[in-house]
Specification:
Keywords: Membrane, Transmembrane, Transmembrane helix. With about 425 residues, the chain is of the alpha+beta class. It has nine helices and 16 strands. The protein has two domains: about 260 residues; about 130 residues, no CATH class.
Length: about 425
């Protein structure tokens, strides 16, 4: 990322941090099912927690290096952000996952996990994890590791999962058992040929149900570069994210969908009376980061209308199944949905408002909000790719900067009282 652009983002966000408390991920998981890096769904990672403000601890992703950095631990926020900055320096210097996370040992209570599709997975610092590997004969190995450095070496199918219970979690005491059970299930899914994206989604669901560390968070597909964005992060500062084991939306075969809690009012599609299927949050996570010819990753920009992302995703996915990645056909499908009220609060779109990235099976729809006080899209096509060079996830940029400002605020307060 262009350093000046990063600085502008920092200046813009710095005031937000005054009102926020920091959070730390309690579950970090990374999975590699194709160590050659060729499978578009062969490497994925993500984080969740019982704690609030999970958007601060999801992940940092470098498009250039195809590496995700996940953080956590029980160290203070200033120590954690110092460790993250040091790790990012190693990443920018082309460090391996092991080199990137090795900096965590110099910061008390901090955990760092890094993953790259062809370079493996590593975790460093203060942690209790299980390392999962699956060899060419389908033999599964699940090994406990605590502190120092643990890794899945390059060229190996495997995973690392960290899990602990947050303070105040009513299911405290379950982390050790759930960590092992989830690791074993991850190993079985790798052996059985499931893609990394689906395995990560299932891990989110299992951890949420059984350990109570259930608030998103989010995940990323490292090969295809698509993430859950802010699907599950809290709408308000100092709040918890979406509970990953809970219903997230209802969808029909014709492409109509509605998110919860509004979904409780619908038993069938209002379009044609077809039945609605319940999609749980962890399933929605998997659907979002798993790409295929007829299951694209869909992003909606330019409107803050509740549920518009889910509705757009359903419409676009149906259009792609019928007509492929044709921007004109996709725009027509979106406009039909606007006409019948499936998508509300936005103006009609043109083919130029549809950004198709067929190589990674992704579609972006850029709306202009209807004249009702909603904001317009921030970016015009084409997107400046330098925005995504270092940090592919805006929520993580916000999170890191919020932590930085918390440290800055603490320093100001101490200085003020010394002057008094």
């Amino acid at each position: 990322m262009n350093r000046s652009k990063f600085s502008k983002i920092a200046l813009f966000l710095i005031v937000v941090m005054i009102f926020s408390t920091t959070a730390s991920a309690t579950m970090n998981v990374a999975v590699i099912t194709d160590p050659t890096g060729k499978d578009p769904n062969g490497c994925a990672a993500g984080s969740q927690s019982f704690a609030p403000n999970m958007f601060q601890s999801t992940f940092i992703f470098s498009q250039e290096h195809k590496m995700a950095l996940l953080s956590g631990g029980e160290g203070t926020s200033d120590v954690r952000v110092a460790a993250i900055i040091k790790a990012l320096t190693e990443l920018q210097n082309n460090g391996t996952p092991e080199q990137v996370v090795s900096v965590a040992s110099g910061y008390p209570g901090i955990r760092l996990m890094a993953v790259n599709p062809t370079e493996g997975i590593a975790v460093g610092g203060d942690f209790d994890v299980y390392v999962v590997t699956v060899d060419n004969s389908s033999k599964i190995t699940v090994q406990a590791a605590s502190g120092g450095i643990a890794k899945v070496p390059p060229g190996t199918k495997g995973a690392i999962i960290h899990l602990r219970n947050s303070e105040g979690n009513p299911k405290a005491g379950t982390a050790s058992t759930v960590r092992l059970q989830t690791a074993m299930n991850i190993g079985k899914m790798i052996r059985d040929g499931y893609p990394a994206t689906e395995i990560v989604a299932q891990a989110f669901g299992e951890v949420a149900r059984d350990s109570g560390e259930d608030h998103g968070g989010g995940a990323i597909n490292l090969v295809s570069g698509v993430s859950t964005g802010d699907m599950f992060t809290p709408e308000q500062l100092n709040d918890v994210g979406y509970e990953m084991e809970k219903p997230y939306s209802k969808v029909s075969d014709n492409g109509w969908s509605v998110g919860y809690p509004e979904a409780e009012n619908y038993q069938v599609s209002p379009i044609d009376g077809s039945p609605l299927d319940v999609v749980y949050a962890y399933e929605a996570l998997g659907n979002t980061i798993t790409v295929s010819n007829d299951n694209p990753t869909v992003s909606a920009y330019g409107s803050e209308e509740k549920g518009i992302s889910e509705a757009t995703s359903s419409v676009v996915t149906t259009a792609v199944k019928k007509n492929g990645y044709d921007p004109v056909k996709i725009a027509q499908a979106v406009n039909r949905a606007i006409s019948i009220g499936s998508i509300v609060g936005v103006e009609y779109v043109d083919a130029s408002d549809i950004n198709v990235r067929e190589n990674i099976k992704a579609v972006g729809v850029y709306y202009t909000a209807a004249p009702n006080g909603k904001s317009a899209p921030v970016w015009n096509l084409p997107i400046d790719s330098s925005i995504f060079d270092i940090l592919g996830n805006v929520q993580t940029v916000i999170g890191v900067l919020l932590i930085l400002l918390a440290v800055f605020r603490s320093t100001l307060i101490k200085s003020y009282f010394r002057r008094r």
